[in-house]
Here is the input.
Amino acid sequence: MSNGYSVAVVGATGAVGEEMFKILDERNFPVKNLKAFASERSEGKIVQFQGEKIKVENLAASSFKNIDIALFSAGASVSKEFSPQFASKGAVVVDNSSAFRMDDNVPLVVPEVNPHAAKKHRGIIANPNCSTIQLVVAINPIHRKVRIKRMIISTFQSVSGTGREAILELKEQTEDYLRGNKIKKEVYPHQIAFNLLPHIGSFLPSGYTEEEVKLVNETRKIMEDNSINATSTCVRVPVFISHSEAITLETKASISVDEVRQILMSAPGVVVEDEPGNSIYPLPISAAGRDEVFVGRIRMDESAPNSLNMWVVSDNLRKGAALNAIQIAELLI
Amino acid sequence: MSNGYSVAVVGATGAVGEEMFKILDERNFPVKNLKAFASERSEGKIVQFQGEKIKVENLAASSFKNIDIALFSAGASVSKEFSPQFASKGAVVVDNSSAFRMDDNVPLVVPEVNPHAAKKHRGIIANPNCSTIQLVVAINPIHRKVRIKRMIISTFQSVSGTGREAILELKEQTEDYLRGNKIKKEVYPHQIAFNLLPHIGSFLPSGYTEEEVKLVNETRKIMEDNSINATSTCVRVPVFISHSEAITLETKASISVDEVRQILMSAPGVVVEDEPGNSIYPLPISAAGRDEVFVGRIRMDESAPNSLNMWVVSDNLRKGAALNAIQIAELLI
Here is the structure.
């Protein structure tokens, strides 16, 4: 390993942790020393980084010392307990959980949208929710031009957003269904194979899920505009990787479809895939493994003035999680 | 067979045709004589009705005589050619295709919404598109109370809406994917297994698909209110049966979630499934094989005044096609 930073990945054995090792390598992140942490259950497992074998350490037994950058993706309760300890020993934590996202003292950063916010950190920077990241990458360039007043969003979210065990559950349920076997449910309350669950995160008294509320609140914080109104329905779909979103945007000023395409074609991190006559539009299976946010089906919504529709797809493990976290870390170096 | 009507099913070997035979039986439709028609390719195949074997006849070789009620589900071009011929020989045609839906001389009927329109027929009554039927059954009771101004709809549509060959394609692609085999595409332009296609019907110059336009235009005609504004994104999902819809409704007058639940609980053909705390909400796999339109996730949309969100699921082969057609036929007897 080269000169550079001492990096820790916390949650090293999860679906996002695995992507983090890949992306640190792909982007030649200046890693001097790499540590892999997980729960006691995974202690001693081996993860690979640039051809080297790294033994997974028990997070609870860590000294938290001599870490420059800690990339956390181990759930909110782990982050709440351990992020402040890493930060107090001098690390900057990039936290992929919901633990600190809405904390006024913690920046919530998408590098294409609000890189300046990262500089204000006090040891912890929050990585937004997967469905929020791809949304703001796609809509921020439009917001800067014509100001978004209101958004209506339906999400189509893949099982990898839940984690590795959900990927396995979709696979096993699908096999059992096709063989006529009984379906086993462990991760989700209902069968996900060949089904849809309008239920992501816990339900709140308002009737919304946590996921639906995050999408609205995190967007306002990242885009630094609390005047944006938004509502959403978040749905889990039987797809392995990539989240998709059907988005209706009502803007203050008018804008044409051609102008939206022009703006998005030069926007950082965005790829416009919008030739419907040739069956070209964003697809989950095409976005999987890619870094960009794909936008298509851009068209005026004639049901209201200054309103437009679009379809936005991105790899939730990469841009929606590991890649965005590492891009945040890159802002620090 | 009892005294009653001489009934023809046109498109007898399709996914909807099969449901028609089941539902005629389940509902004890007064069938005196039943004929099964399909293309020349299916001539001589056997379909079952109430324990009897019925030989499928070649539609093109039919005399169209002595039929009281003809239930068509064989695509728009077949309907355009043959429906008028059946009607001219005295049959009333209930047509499941898009051929005549927007024809001013043809009623477009959902019995829970506009049964009176059926009486004005001149030999042909159109059965609406699957995604429209479940929408209007769910929203019409709300419209009657507080008038809908605008709707934003995202659909999650099952492959059975495309037909029997699409059901097979999802099954085969899923098996090939799990075995690591090459995916074969015949029905859809892209893989549907573990994927999503924002593409149902052909694309129009506006950037919308035919399906998205049908949803808006048919709703206005059935609800007899051209002032309703609507926009939609229609998406094919890897589900076998049942279409799902995330719907945002903006109304003229205000209404509470409790009032909406009360109205829908007493609405014809609607079942409210809305206990999110107990993970009870409409699901495609639960709606499959059922007759009703299931509504849940009812909640206020705080992003606009007088706006609410809901999640609507129904079996697209039954209420979305065969059942609604037979309910129309029941209005005639």
